[in-house]
Amino acid sequence: MVPCYIAVFALTIALFAYIFWPARNLFTQADKTRVDYLRERKDAIYENLRDLNFEYLAGKYPESEYNEQRRALEDEAARVISEMEALQARGVRGMRSRA
């Protein structure tokens, strides 16, 4: 009877170790450059523009509000893209690793 409890205990410890043992060092991650941040922001703005267009076509926004929000998103996208181009012209590249 006791060997059964020892086996169950050992199996439980092994199971917890397998589940909760970190597979890699969680404190090491890639440094994001400003260009990486701007690229993510540009993608988010484009997604917002697509969503806005879809919701306008679905009748959720009046035309005046749609035009105002669309203009604001397009202006923000233009600023982001111009900053990305300026940084890339200076030679700043994306995704450096801290490892």
Topology, element by element:
Elements lengths: L1 H19 L9 E2 L2 H24 L5 H27 L6 E2 L2
Antiparallel strand pairs: 1-2
Helix pairs in contact: 2-3
Work out the radius of gyration: 25 Å
Numbering strands along the chain, what is their spatial order in the largest sheet?
1-2
Structural class, by secondary structure, is mainly alpha
Beta-sheet strand percentage? Answer: under 5%
Task: Find the count of extended strands (DSSP E, 2+ residues).
Answer: 2
Q: Give me the strand/helix succession.
A: HEHHE
Shape: elongated
- Major sheet attributes: 2 strands, antiparallel
- N- and C-termini, Cα separation: 50 Å
Task: Write up what this structure looks like.
With 99 residues, this protein is mainly alpha-helical. It has a domain at 30-97. Helix content is 71%, strand content 4%. The protein contains 3 helices and 2 strands, in the order H-E-H-H-E. The protein has helices at 2-20, 34-57, 63-89, and strands at 30-31, 96-97. It has a two-stranded antiparallel sheet. Helix 2 packs antiparallel against helix 3. The radius of gyration is 25 Å and the shape is elongated. The mean pLDDT is 86.
Which tags fit this structure?
99 residues; mainly alpha; 71% helix
In short:
This protein has 99 residues and is mainly alpha-helical. The protein is 71% helix and 4% strand.
